Amino acid sequence: MRDIGKWQFISFVSRGLAMAIGLVQTFIIVRLLSKGEWGLIQLAVSVGGALGIYQHLGLASASTREISAAKSDDDIFKIFITSIVIRYFVTLPLAVGLFFFAHDLAVNLYKNQLLVLPLQIYAISLLFQGFQSILNSVISGTKKFRNLFIYQVVIAVISILLYIPLIFTYRVTGYFIAFLAFNVVNTVALWLLAFRPLNIKFRLPSYPEFKLVFKDIFTISMGIYLVKILATNWEKLGTNVLGLSHSTELVATFAFALLFAKKILSISDAVTDVNLPVFSDHFVKDPIEFRKIFKANFSKLFVIIIFTATVACFWSKELVMLALGAKKLIDYQDSLYLIPPLLLGFVFYSFIDIVKSSVLVPAKMTWQMTLGFFALLLSTVVIFVLGTTFFPSLDAMAWAMTLGAAVGFMLVAYLIKLELNFEFYNIDHFVIMLEAYFISTLNYLAFNPIKVLLFIVLSSLLLASFVISGDLKKEDLVTISQKIRRKR
Question: How far apart are CA 150 and CA 135, in angstroms?
């Protein structure tokens, strides 16, 4: 438990730094571009991302699981080669298809000629993206966490150095040139990080070896693949659907709130880097201890995610104003009202993500995992369709994503209780989330001493709720207080 906590903390720090750098990059880009240009970029990335996800095949998580159990460095390389061969059976047709049908998608479906070149550059980038998650699996599966976490910060800095000059010079086209260059650099760097520390002879697997590795990976990868498709289409649903019948300016309003809310996933992404290889090992060796460790770990993650999301949302107006300036804030004023519900939705989704990497994949609960993510997407679509009858499209989509995520998480938690006979989420957690959402809705208040006082009082009450529920121990508060004093 101590090792898990140590690496999760280091992962939080590296992801946090990378997220902060990414936010700076995003805000600079938003300031450089018009609202229409920003909306066009988000639409192209959303369309390309929704198609690109079909190359995933669940191979990253399945490969990580197999690599963590590999007996030699040569076996690791065989798993890598097998995974890459499988992936590019899908990636190549996708990239070629998107490149040559970019004009039809842009002009006939989205009625926007300006989308053609961005989609074509995105298609070329897919050829490099295909390697990245498998290379990341090699690093995670061999538990080279330190190298991975340092790299996450370094590549975020490189991203700024690529994007800002090119966008300043070439506007929207510059964004996608930078996107392609970033993916090339990222792929080469990950290759060096993955294989330089290993003693590998780089021999291809024989046909019998290929079949054996393929069978081991395939047993779970298809379930993860379907889940990834469902999850990505859920994330892209808002911009893709709104883009069919609304202006790029309105898409930008929703996309900006979505972008802010999605940053909370940095925590669950950081956890996934550590939890998948570690909990896979725990589940095989000691299922009873696995339950105990996961439940304790989830309680701590619950506190971190809820408190971070609440603070970020409460001060979202000030953060956006600080990043964009008062003049640019006017363009995105309507986004502020969408942030609280969307952030709540992504909190639920982050819990699903944590459970997937820590329980569902290690326990090979493939159909339960698939059912949970299917419920996530389907309920979102149904709620949006019904919601547009009574509410504006933006509000309907924001709440549809939130309620859909809640349905997906509750179903997954219930299925885990049935299959593994243990419970990690209860009514106390739900009540605390409602309390946190109420605090978040005060983000529209103007900055003044009253808002500061409100924050102090309400955040203190939220911390007290964590203690009462048992998710935050008094000893944890004492430990945190002592560490702060030492640093002083």
Answer: 16
